Amino acid sequence: MQVALVDLLRSFNIFPSGVVAHSSGEIAAGYCAGFLSRESAWKLAYYRGAMVAPLMRSKQNTGTKDFGTMMSVGLSEANAQAYLNELKKDFGYAAVVVACMNSPKNVTLSGNEIQINYLKARLDNEGIFARKLQVPAAYHSPQMNEVAAEYLACIQELEPGRLPPGAPVTIMISSITGERATPGELCNPEYWAKNMVSPVRFSQALSKLCTQSTKDQKGGIDGSHGNTVQVHDLLEVGPHSTLQGAVRDILKEVGKDKKTTYNSILVRNNSALQTTMEVAGQLHCTGYPLDVAKVNSRGIGDFKSSVVLTDLPEYPFNHSQSYWHESRFSGTGYRFRKFPRLDLLGTPAWDWNPLEAKWRNIIKVSEVPWIEDHKV
């Protein structure tokens, strides 16, 4: 679905300057950046689910809680780790890890369900946000090592992608390393095996994308060698605005919450048509060069068939009263002045009084080049 949404946005002429993603969302992000082909993205997503399916069935068949699960917790990474250290003392071992650093104030824990339930009860008693996720496997934990090797064997021969002609170069910040990713890195199957078992550093990746400086940017004529981008608007591409809270906390942490907007192309329980059109409208009003005709079309390739309604009833406009307002610098005294601008005096002031003559002038070397030699 994310790949399809990327293609839809491309048809609107909406292309990102940079992408970051959370967990398996990196598959669609790699496709969006042009690092992976569409078929390779599908391949990665399919086998990722196929490898985890046996773990899910095993848990459902046995009904045991020895299998893994995940839980979102309203703690920083350091504070969450302190609870895990105490968990080790209580059980003699810790089968739970910090799987995702979602924001400075939120992490996702992953591991043994019995220990997850134990932690949840303790956090609830202390008034700390803790919500179990509806997932039957412990992603980004040692449990994934059981299927990582088989997953790696199934995803060989990944193909690089290609951006449409005229599309801007897109950079990608990896949520595995927190650093900029390369096309060669994403075409390496080992990267995606690491994606399944490694912690997700989403907070670090988004912070880096939003706080890059252009001081050291070096780009060619087409900008293909640029190392940094300036991000002003964030658009989440997925089934829901899942990361809205995390994004808000991250932007506030780096001081970009007042300068960066956030939108989600889809929102749960809302019309997908409405949310998509709202995103397109907001980007258009911001100044992005999207194709409005295609946004308003009724289907793929159907935008040329749109017709204009010419039989609407005429509207009786009332022109008896004028609401024209002019500033003091563009009043009738300026627009209907009798004399042109003079280099030395400029133009008569807007409130011209012959008994107290005043002129307004802005001297520019570009307009009066000879003044460049007159320096005091």
Walk me through what this model shows.
By secondary structure, the chain is α/β, with parallel strands linked by helices. It folds into 3 domains: 225 residues, Malonyl-Coenzyme A Acyl Carrier Protein, domain 2 (3-Layer(aba) Sandwich); 67 residues, Alpha-Beta Plaits; 64 residues, no CATH class. Helices cover 36% and strands 11% of the residues. Helix 1 packs parallel to helix 2, helix 6 packs antiparallel against helix 8 and helix 9 crosses helix 10. The protein is elongated, with a radius of gyration of 29 Å.
CATH topology of the largest domain: Malonyl-Coenzyme A Acyl Carrier Protein, domain 2
Per DSSP, the total helix count is 13
What is the averaged pLDDT score? 88
Distance, first to last CA? 68 Å
CATH architecture designation of the largest domain: 3-Layer(aba) Sandwich
Order of helices and strands: HEHHEHEEHEHEHHHEHEHHHEE
Helix content: 25-40%
| Biggest sheet character | 4 strands, antiparallel
Task: Give, in spatial order, the strands making up the sheet with the most strands.
Answer: 3-4-2-5
The tally of beta strands, per DSSP, is 10
